[in-house]
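for ur thesis appendix - GNAT family N-acetyltransferase. copy paste whatever u need, i formatted it the way the template wanted (i think)
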Amino acid sequence: MDKIPCLPPGYSAVAPGHIATVVTSLQMFQRPAPRPGAGLAPGLQLSRLERPSIQRYRHLYRAVGQDWLWFSRLVMADDKLAAILADPLVHIYALQDGQQDLGILELDFRVPGECELAFFGLTPAAVGTGTGRALMNEALALAWSQPINRLWVHTCTLDHPAALAFYRRSGFTPYAVQVETGPDPRLAGTLPRDCASHVPIIEPAGTPD
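the 3d part is after this line
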């Protein structure tokens, strides 16, 4: 691989075999008014998963996040993930249509007075149907039903391109921006090589074709 001789000011090189993303954190300090016309469609239900197994959880997580390179919970040690799933202050929900999972909602209340909207998303079949807005109304109602003063979430440039605007329309305000880099999970076999085609794979030097 040819080396970049000189980077413009403000640029940083990302190592081959790695990916980079801009992470935006957003927050709110009171529950906003529900967005109109955003109830769950007939036949959909939001079911809380009480102490789900690691396999059940990762199946849901992967169904929603694979195309967006969600991998943190796939590579997390089983004992650490099991502790999170068993914690009564972590509320995990699956959006279902009676036959299959269509979405994930995870609310983390482990910090007193706060809630992190840890994971929120839909499977490809449900994206663009208006279901996301309905799921967000459910998320806000559930989060603010607890004694919290702050609800926060983060999104990144690996997510759906409309994610940041969606969170802002839902009542969140950006407050921090960071750049995160790490090994590409497709190269380690954690995720299929053909997922997330919007993010190119940059092979490490010496990788055979």
